[in-house]
Amino acid sequence: MKIVFATNNAHKLQEIREILGDKFEILSLNDIGCHEDIPETGMTLEENAHQKASYVFEKYGYDCFADDTGLEVEALDGAPGVHSARYAEGTDHDSEANMAKLLRELDGKPNRKARFRTVIALIQKEGDSTVCSREYAFEGEVKGRIDTEKHGTAGFGYDPLFIPDGYDKSFAELGEDIKNQISHRARAVKQLAEHLLAE
Question: Dihedral angle at the C-alpha atoms of 173, 174, 180, 182, nearest 10 degrees?
Fold first, then answer.
């Protein structure tokens, strides 16, 4: 089964392909010749995921899924949330700057509880129709805490700071194999895969 994952993020693409295995041919935006900067102007993870999947489906005609992921920190009223990739002012996907800002914001705060949340929006053609479509949403979360300093080198984003519940190591220390079994994205993708395989 061929399906587009609306991303050019190599880390996300590899993670998704490893989780889904060889049952699906996962195409990136680059694979379908989409080089535009797809807008993400939603106020929620759900809106952003829908926006990206809709863009690809309407413009390129492929069945498509898109995700949006946010780190929600309890002591910061859910921030950085939908702004996780651009948390540090004037940056875009600058993990080091984002982590530095997060540590500054949490400095002196005893409550380090946090959760990662991934929302996946899937849009598929309705039968042979090129006009009618069906849309689905899947969500995964993993709870944990933010450490006071970075640990580990695997993964990406906030992984060196996030320690999932039940573990004493960060996502970046646990490595891809364990992370891909327990992560927020893994849980959302598992629901996506179950839906696709049931068809």
Answer: -120
68 catalytic residue (yes or no): yes
Q: What is the pLDDT of residues 77-126, one digit of tens each?
A: 999 999 998 899 876 678 999 999 999 999 999 999 999 999 999 999 87
What is the pTM for the complete model shown?
0.86
Please write down the HEC assignment for all residues of 151-189. CCCCCCCCCCCEEECCCCCCHHHHHHHHHHHHCHHHHHH
Catalytic residue among 63, 67, 68, 159: 68
Burial class (CB in 10 A: 0-12, 13-18, 19+), 42: middle
Report the alpha-carbon angle 125-56-61, nearest 5.
40
